[in-house]
């Protein structure tokens, strides 16, 4: 039985009629940027996260970069973050001229170990960039407490955390701003690249909006900041608005799949993901860890089960970022997890039969 890791085509098949209609509507309108769907999506995502402002952008990476610029982070500054993540989290810090300072992760969550933040603070530290990973929030209480103790700004990397909450409060409310990715594989995915910043700070929102369009703040052709071309295309906004109506149902299906995995795999010597107290979980990924990862992955492939490794090499081991790390052994949990992590299929268009096949295959391997 073939089990694909992603099935983006299935999303289209489910929503073909409304997607075709809205794409034709946009193309025939002649309004391709900053149009009604773009403006409505900003309001809808901001409302979903209980924030005043949404700033739609052309990628989640640009969301992180513009968040840095709008906060004034630059050369001489340090930003505390983690190395078990997608590269955008670190590269956007480096692009500003600032220095990423890596701390290790909590082995139960793969996210920032907040007990290590204070020791990483120096007189140059300006911000903390916590990364909400795999569909739930990090220890936001620990992050915000550390930020308050050390007078630091919090900028949330919420690329994988659309709709995630802690004690009912959504991402975007634990710092100055949060950045989301709508890449095609996300729980809410565009038909290409797209991203967004949410914030409750009026002045910050005004800066971010200006920076996304060449730094034009006051009026057209008057430049207040060095900026970018980072508008979200109107077609992407329209596609996202259609899919947003299905996101809650798709997340419910992800939770059903996770429940099957958790039940079927519970008797194995295999650490399974957990929902942290106070969090909901949108199950962007279902990640297990095992020292036998490099045997399990080809075994699953023989059973026609796709799996992925997020992330195989921690960022402080990559050539462009090695100078910011302490070398091998400096982040022991990050390094161990990178050696052992394996992500199982959990997209919402899997059938129960496919999910059971994945679970049986993992059980058979360990048996």
From TrEMBL:
SUPFAM superfamilies: PLP-dependent transferases (SSF53383). The active site is at 186 (proton acceptor). It holds the Pfam family DegT_DnrJ_EryC1. The modification N6-(pyridoxal phosphate)lysine is found at residue 186. GO terms for biological process: polysaccharide biosynthetic process. InterPro entries: DegT/StrS_aminotransferase, PyrdxlP-dep_Trfase, PyrdxlP-dep_Trfase_major, PyrdxlP-dep_Trfase_small. GO terms for molecular function: pyridoxal phosphate binding; transaminase activity. Keywords: Pyridoxal phosphate. Belongs to the DegT/DnrJ/EryC1 family. This is Pleiotropic regulatory protein DegT.
